[in-house]
């Protein structure tokens, strides 16, 4: 399912409740926020099992186009709730594999997300372990970070040029 429409985060969540068999989701626009990501987070022991949104998702692609800050912790929790390693199993409260529910996420793409600092979600320890286990994660920096990089690069080149003109090493 591809959503690129001017709808609110509440409307996105309501829409997703009606697509339990969905295996691929692509969301665009600036209406993505922590509420949408939290709604996509699967609860291992929900009081009502069908309360989990889109439990069959194998691929998630999210595009954030504005400067709204997203919580990296909320995003990590959502990703980890849907990644069960190679076999896709949950771990029960007593530490044993729980075969009653298989997590299916295999790929996530995060495009233009700003987590409020220069951290890359793929470098976070728990996500890095998931990547080693086989989860495909592609995270592209936000325009804010690209602009900051371009400004820093431009300033660096200007300083180097000035030093060269002045003969300073």
Description:
This protein has one domain (2-142). The relative contact order is 0.13. The chain has 5 helices and 7 strands, in the order E-H-E-H-E-H-E-E-E-H-E-H. Helix content is 36%, strand content 20%. Helix 1 (9-17) packs parallel to helix 2 (34-40) and helix 2 (34-40) packs parallel to helix 3 (72-82). The chain has 169 residues and is of the alpha/beta class. The protein has helices at 9-17, 34-40, 72-82, 125-133, 143-166, and strands spanning 2-3, 24-27, 59-63, 89-91, 97-102, 107-113, 136-141. The strands form 2 sheets. It has a 5-stranded parallel beta sheet. A two-stranded antiparallel sheet has the order 4-5. The mean pLDDT is 76.
Strand percent estimate: 15-25%
Could you say which structural class the secondary elements and strand pairing correspond to?
alpha/beta
First and last CA, distance: 56 Å
Summed over residues and divided by their number, the pLDDT gives a mean of 76
Strand order of the largest sheet: 1-2-3-6-7
Reading the helices and strands in chain order gives EHEHEHEEEHEH
Biggest beta-sheet profile: 5 strands, parallel
Residues in helices, as a percent range: 25-40%
User: How many strands appear in the DSSP assignment?
Assistant: 7
Number of domain modules:
1
What's the alpha carbon Rg, rounded to whole Å?
A: 20 Å
Shape: elongated
Specify the number of helices. Answer: 5
Low-confidence stretches: none
